[in-house]
Design brief:
Elements: H1 3-9, E1 11-12, E2 15-16, H2 17-71, H3 74-84, H4 101-109
Antiparallel strand pairs: 1-2
Amino acid sequence: MSPISNIFTHRVRGVRVINLWGAGVLLVLVLALYLVKTFGGAERSDIASTEAQIAEEQRSIALLKAEVAFLERPERIQRLAEQGLNAQPIPGRHDATVGELPRIARAGDEPKPAAGAAQ
């Protein structure tokens, strides 16, 4: 009898060795499947939690963008500037052309007397 055929015919306590090996492999496969499903379920739960956090952050970002848009309204900024800083719009006589910039720069280089200094 060859060693391979001996595996199929050899018996231990009335059970063939090949049946014992098959049962052992089946048990290992069942255990592995259980572990994979268990860890897969935990990963799925983590993914769902992360997706919920992403959705919440996106809602927060949208809310903050709306708040920024509200706070940046020109009429609101102008009203606050007038109330808090007593600022007024700059009159048109302060506008300068590109050709006037060198003259303005030279005029700004001249030292100005300090306020309250003796002359």
